[in-house]
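> forwarded from #structure-qc
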């Protein structure tokens, strides 16, 4: 944008350019990188500890049944990572990718 003052703006400020009007300085929401990183780390720790533990995998099912449940959950619209966490108790990676491809018929 052709507004030289934009280079020296403090965090939380922006220039808005609306049709038919002069550019204007506005206040915007602002979270600095350290605060955002801290929030992200806390959320990741909480989710890991509370939501995605291996105890939440479905242990009573056979591997074949887990594969079928994984397939159903993906077909219902759940992401492969989320379905993998729910069914197998771990991320969709490594050996699970091959198992998932077989279950989904994509080999």
């Amino acid at each position: 944008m052709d507004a030289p003052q934009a280079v020296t703006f403090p965090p939380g400020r922006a220039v808005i350019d609306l049709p038919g009007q002069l550019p204007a300085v506005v206040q915007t929401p602002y979270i600095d990188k350290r605060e955002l990183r801290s929030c992200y780390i806390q959320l990741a720790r909480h989710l890991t500890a509370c939501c995605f533990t291996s105890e939440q995998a479905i242990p009573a099912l056979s591997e074949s049944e887990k594969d079928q449940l994984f397939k159903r959950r993906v077909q219902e619209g759940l992401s492969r990572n989320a379905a993998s966490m729910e069914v197998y108790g771990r991320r969709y990676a490594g050996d699970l990718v091959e198992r998932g491809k077989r279950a989904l018929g994509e080999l």
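QC bot note: Residues 32-107 form one domain. The longest helix spans residues 33-50.
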